[in-house]
Structure formats: C-alpha cells, structure tokens
Write a structure and sequence with these properties.
Blueprint (H helix, E strand, L loop, with lengths): L17 H4 L6 H24 L5 H18 L3 H7 L1 H21 L2 H8 L10 H9 L2 H6 L2 H16 L2 H7 L2 H23 L10 H24 L19 H15 L1 H52 L1
Helix pairs in contact: 2-3, 2-6, 3-5, 4-5, 5-11, 5-13, 9-11, 9-12, 10-11, 11-12, 12-13, 12-14
Length: 317
Amino acid sequence: MDHSGHHGMMMDMPPFTLGRGLEFSGDPFFMTGCLLGVALYGWAVVRLWRRGDRWPIGRVVAFVLGVATVWLVMCTKLNDYGMVMFSVHMVQHMVISMLSPILILLGAPVTLTLRALPAAGRGRTGPRELLVKLLHSRYMRIITHPAFTIPLFIASLYALYFSPIFDFLMESKVGHIAMMVHFLAVGLVFFWPIMGVDPGPHRPGYVMRMLELFAGMPFHAFFGIALMMASEPMIGTYKHPMASLGIDALDDQKAGGGIAWAFSEIPSVLVLLALVYQWYRSEQRQARRSDRAAERNGDKELAEYNAYLASLQARGR
C-alpha cells in the first residue's frame, strides 16, 4: 500500500510521542472555524457588556475551552497521526464528539446569540427572528428528539467504523474533515437537550435527561470492548501502518478500543455533575419562590383569621 498517497503526506512519519503529536500543523478548515467561533462569541459578549447586561465569565471560559479542544485535536500533528494511527484517531473522535460539545454547550452559545442579536422590529424578520423560528421548527424537534439522537450517536460508531464508509472517507482530506464535522455535530445534537443550558425544542425533566445520557453510554463501552477483543485489525485504513511508526496494527487497534471504552465514562460524569448542580439550583429557586409566596400569603391568612375571630366576637355579643 502506497502511503505517499495519503493527502500527499511525507513517506515516513517518526514514531508517535505526545510532544510530536502536539506540534502545530494548522488545518485551514478547522483553524478558520475555531477562530471564527471564538471571535463571534467574543463579539456577542462585548455587545452585552456594553449594553450593561451581565454574562457569566464561567460560560465564556467553558466555550473557549470547548473550541480549544477542537483546535487541539484538529490543528496539531495529532491530526496527521490520526490519519495513520487508529489510537490517535480515536482520541480525536472522542474529544471532538464528547468533550468539545459539552464544553461548547456549557458556554450557552444559543442563549448568547439570542440576547446579542437585535430584534428586527414589528412585522420584520431579521437573523434573531429566523433563529427563533428555527429553534421552534419541526426539523429541530425531530433532530433533538432522543428517538433520533441516541440511534444517531450509536450509528456514528458502529455503522461508520464497521462498514466501508470509514475507509472511503479517510481516502480524502474533504472526507476526513466531513467526518470530524459530523462527529462534532452529532455530539452537539446529542448533548444539547441533555445539558439543557440553551433553549431548545425539547426540555425533558432531570430524570429523563439522565436516562437519555446513560442510554447512549453502554454502546460506547461495547464498541471499545469489541475493538479490544478483536483478533485481527478491523479497519482497512489502519491495517498496514507505515514501518517508521514502529507499531503493530492490532495492538494499536486495541489501544484505540481502550480509549473509546475509557473515554465514554468521562463525559458522563461531567454531564451528570452539571445536571445535579442544575437540579439543585432549580430546587433552591423553587424553595425560595414558595417561601416568598408563603410570606405574602401568610399575612393574608393572618388577616383573614383575625377577621374571622372578630366576626365570631360580633356574633357572640
């Protein structure tokens, strides 16, 4: 198999080390996307601040970290090594489909956009109105419904890797970019209703969200275990690693399976913590509301009781 055909990369790549993997390589597509994402988010935040509105700094940090994780796996040599080593590709896949989306969603980009865009005025349709329309559309209701997101999440693993689609996409730069964008999009659509930070068509209760979260995770673990248990390399692209890498295809696949299996737990814990915190906060808000209502009603009840006593006295005279 001729490796020089791989995106016109060098014939030989030195063995993988973390240092080599983290060298800057700058994929133009993802570099532009990352910079644009941060710039637009920053513009919106500044717009809010200038107006005197508050926007939590924690959200800014989460969003920037989310974009930074995409940058880390797509704009460094990890992206080059991911083309020839399954284990490195799996790190890319797990980060971009499970870690980046969670962090980006914690940044509440939809809420920020809705608050930063000006309203178009009566009867007119501007970008903000179009976004609101999209959020309430049937299309959005379908693609964020668990009956759609969970199978999609699972198919992104099994249907892609255990069929010729993966090898076909890996043959071209465009195919590889499309696959990574798909992973990111699937992650965003899957975690969006579960995280519940941004407004969306589905607003399930906390217990439902936890169930949705855990519905997808075992499949991730099984996928990883299937790769670890395999007795031969299963993915064509990685069957014949270049000699200079000094790796065995099956060992590398097992390492990739281990990464997929271990990684499926990390986001679950992150999201679970975020959900429990949100739940706790909403319970507290509820309690405060009922306290305030009790205070208001308590005075009324007391007045009514006094009036009742007075009426009894008046009757007793």
